[in-house]
Amino acid sequence: MRKQLLVSMLCGVIILSSLMVPSIPRASAYSKIWTKDFVESSGKSNYTLTLTSPDVVQSNSNWTLTTKLNIDYMDRYKTFLFYSTILLTIETPDGHQVKKSLAFGHYPIGEFPERLYPGGRWGPNNVTIDLSQEGKDLNPSPGETDEAKIYITVSVAEFLFQPFRAEQLPQTTYQTFSMDAGSVQIVSQSSAESNLLPYILGAAVAVVVFAGLIVSSRFTGRKTKQTS
Q1: How does strand 97-105 pair with strand 78-91?
Q2: Which of 208, 217, 218, 193 is closest to 14 using CA atoms?
Q3: Do 185 and 199 have their domain in common?
Q4: What is the pLDDT of residues 125-182, one digit of tens each?
């Protein structure tokens, strides 16, 4: 009877512990993709921007975001991309911000510009925010979790090949587009630890009950042998 009771208690603790697991913050892949068209008299161009990040980050840790810009299409006079920038702005509900930027090429165009033709790609490029240093103001208060908003601004400059123009200066375009990239949870370390505590306690109780079951089983076995 006692053995059955201990087995029932052990099963109950294991089930309870398994139910506690989903409350633990888990980081998974967070990825978004945008496409942007520019249609002008000089031609049409199309770009695809990809942003990848964990959807949950711990306070005081290194938060890495990855960007990738594809040049999908150009026609008419548009020939290649020679300059681009990506500005990432991270903002918390209390108004604190961190800005990180990436740059490809130089503007205005020089004599020997860097070039990305249609079908080319700039990236993947990593941007890391140290939440213990430059991004410390993004950290939530102990025991709390904040939703950090991500905003992206992209600029692109294209070279126009116009052989019949009399001007000697190179012809270029310059465009900018922005988007709201969603949000990522920043979890304070104390909050993560408090979420883990019930699971740890449940596991500890399960181990104690299991050890008690083994000891009780051995004691019962010895008692049976002595009686016989």
Answers
A1: antiparallel
A2: 208
A3: no
A4: 999 999 999 999 999 999 999 999 999 999 999 999 987 665 667 899 999 999 999 9
Count, residues in the chain: 228
ω into 124 cis (within 30 of 0) = yes
CATH at residue 56: 2.60.40
CA dist 100 and 63 (Å) reads 12
* Domain boundaries, position 223: 2-17+193-227
Same domain, residue pair 92 and 11: no
Q: Which residue has the higher pLDDT, 79 or 226?
A: 79
**DSSP E strand boundaries for 55-120:** 56-58, 62-74, 78-91, 97-105
**The pTM is what?**
0.74
Nearest CA to 126 out of 62, 179, 212 is that of 62
Structure tokens at 226: 């002595």
How many domains does the chain fold into? Answer: 2
